[in-house]
Automatic annotation (TrEMBL):
Residues 258-288 form the Zn(2)-C6 fungal-type domain. CDD domains: GAL4. This is Zn(2)-C6 fungal-type domain-containing protein. It comes from the Eukaryota. GO terms for molecular function: DNA-binding transcription factor activity, RNA polymerase II-specific; zinc ion binding. The lineage of its organism: Eukaryota, Fungi, Dikarya, Basidiomycota, Agaricomycotina.
């Protein structure tokens, strides 16, 4: 009788290597999955697309997104897009640095500078509305971000002190804030109009009157964001996208209807005419664009 212990069967390493990676949920993964369940229609595809992201990356992603106060979903999209594309991973540090600049902003400041946040993030997603992440609908994420901004802005307008602070910040550069207010007004088609519609209309009137008498010599936000077009997209990608994916994202540079100042004053307006005095008070002629993320 042999006194040697029985030989252990060596595992079949070939089969092991061929076995597909399995998604093993744990605490941080549960939070990650829960976030996407609220923001996508294809959770399984997102889980597969992000399965190689570590727990620390997922936690950092959600923490960074929540720190911006607005555009939470757009930040998550940008972070994941950079993380799952190896050549783009070095740009994660630039995204982190950008978000650190906005951590100290409260909601009033973030909403008044919404265009800076959005246009900066666009730099990391140079082909908007093209699906970088399987199972993720960028347009849906943006729609939900805009609706969430509406809720936050209405909360500010409901508080006299916060409303005053918001207007004071906006006076430095009223055009982006006026555009945001108008877009939030347009995105709600409830009939009859809810109380929020009245608050937004009154805010547009109040900010327009206040900013019409204010004199500002600040640099245009677009000038400080080199390479970004007035639509919020990197300039050198606009023509390329339209030609390659047959998606015309080029919006007319001027409004197709009366601009906010002329509309509120109930006076004739020639949309797109740089000689419109009321429009020129705001630095750019008739720049109201009816599409939220083109502002």
């Amino acid at each position: 009788m042999s006194t040697f212990p029985p030989r252990r069967r060596r595992p079949n390493m070939t089969l092991h290597l061929l076995e597909p990676l399995r998604y093993v949920p744990h605490t941080s993964d549960a939070e990650w999955e829960s976030w996407w369940q609220s923001n996508t229609q294809d959770v399984s595809a997102i889980m597969e697309s992000t399965r190689l992201l570590g727990a620390n990356s997922k936690s950092e992603c959600l923490a960074m997104a929540r720190s911006t106060k607005i555009y939470e979903r757009l930040v998550v999209y940008a972070y994941v897009h950079l993380s799952i594309n190896e050549p783009l991973i070095p740009f994660l540090d630039q995204l982190r640095e950008a978000l650190k600049l906005w951590e100290s902003w409260d909601e009033c400041h973030a909403l008044s500078k919404h265009h800076i946040i959005r246009k900066t993030i666009w730099r990391f997603c140079p082909v908007p509305f093209v699906q970088h992440i399987r199972g993720c609908d960028l347009k849906l994420l943006l729609d939900r971000d805009v609706r969430e901004m509406r809720v936050k802005l209405l909360e500010i307008l409901s508080d006299a002190q916060r409303e005053k602070r918001f207007f004071e910040i906006c006076l430095d550069d009223p055009v982006p804030a006026l555009n945001l207010l108008q877009v939030l007004l347009d995105c709600n088609t409830a009939s009859p109009p809810d109380s929020g519609q009245l608050m937004l209309s009154q805010a547009i009137t109040g900010l327009s009157k206040s900013s019409a008498t204010a004199t500002t010599n600040n640099e245009s936000p677009n000038d400080s964001l080199g390479g970004i077009s007035q639509y919020g997209f990197p300039e050198d990608y606009v023509a390329h996208i339209s030609e390659t994916v047959h998606l015309d994202i080029r919006v007319e540079p001027y409004a197709s209807s009366s601009c906010n100042p002329c509309r509120l004053a109930s006076v004739p307006c020639n949309p797109g005419n740089p000689s419109c005095d009321r429009c020129m008070r705001f630095g750019t002629p008739c720049t109201y664009l009816p599409h939220g993320w083109y502002m």
